[in-house]
């Protein structure tokens, strides 16, 4: 019996979370990929359980992994989570993750009993109609909605057969914005239960060099603080946090978890010249600059690319 009960279509639609090359609002549709590879990597996140027997945990969050890679202020975050249904009947498993409003989803997929269900970006209105049709037919569906001033919430639920497991994979990307003299990576972590394997890993590479790197969390206690490992060199930094099940407990022998809040990484880069730093990759360029001698006042910045006749010849080529 298939572990994916009653699912024909899974889709995600919303305005604030997904970006396309065109200004049209987008949506993410999930469908069964019969040609998917046997092994998949990616991301997924926090799970909840719905069970008629609350005294005996029948849905187990086996692992939660957050893998963030930052290169030249551009963050690529992959969240992977595996949940197990240990009951002798099917159970509904919920997957929820909050991500920054400035981020955009590039992949969402699920793997159940060897089958992979992959996301596809579609135009908003078309996807909305498919979403409503899926919901009215009783099929599984997901959506993005506002969670606060700085965060968006992605949520989806799926029914899993007895003694089966599901792997959720979510990937999102974000161009980090410099505020108050630093860049910030915010990772919202709310597993809601103890996790057998929990890990946050962030790798940062900045060609200009790192001036400082700091990692903190709203839930860090004196016991958890030493578990944040940080290695910093001239241009690279690695931050990891991987507590055991016992270290996650609120108290010895209880099922409550201390992991509930924001894991925040702050850093800045070296700036030796007032003209900033220009990087060119695959025909595209980005110009970073933060003049230290200008007063910090509200201002509008206008970028001008001159394509007039006076630029003809070598100037235009440059």
TrEMBL record:
DNA-binding as a keyword of this entry, yes or no, is: no
Q: Which PANTHER family match?
A: INTER-ALPHA-TRYPSIN INHIBITOR HEAVY CHAIN FAMILY MEMBER, INTER-ALPHA-TRYPSIN INHIBITOR HEAVY CHAIN H3
Where does the record place the VIT domain? 45-174
Q: Which Pfam families match?
A: VIT
Q: State the superkingdom.
A: Eukaryota
**Which keywords does this chain's UniProt record carry?**
Signal
> Whose protein is this, by species?
Ataeniobius toweri
Q: What is this protein called?
A: Inter-alpha-trypsin inhibitor heavy chain H3
Signal peptide location: 1-26
